[in-house]
Design brief:
With about 60 residues, the chain is an alpha+beta fold. The protein contains two helices and four strands. The chain binds zinc ion (ZN).
């Protein structure tokens, strides 16, 4: 999954099913703009960003 950091707690995640689409994950609110989040209150994008943040903080300290 392609993840891009837009702000301190805002991330853009590219959709896997539709490459032209991307969703915005807000880690502070733990929300996402995808339809799955609206129905379930959770989605794989939030989980992916969680992993992304853990990997990043393990490999490089904040500058
Ligand atoms: Zn999502």
């Amino acid at each position: 999954m392609i993840i891009r950091q837009l702000g301190s707690e805002i991330f853009e995640v590219k959709s896997e099913s539709d490459e032209g689409k991307s969703y915005i994950v807000n880690l502070k609110e733990r929300s996402c703009t995808c339809p799955s989040y609206k129905y379930k209150g959770f989605c794989k994008h939030i989980a992916a960003v969680d992993e992304f943040v853990i990997e990043n903080s393990a490999s490089q300290k904040f500058k």
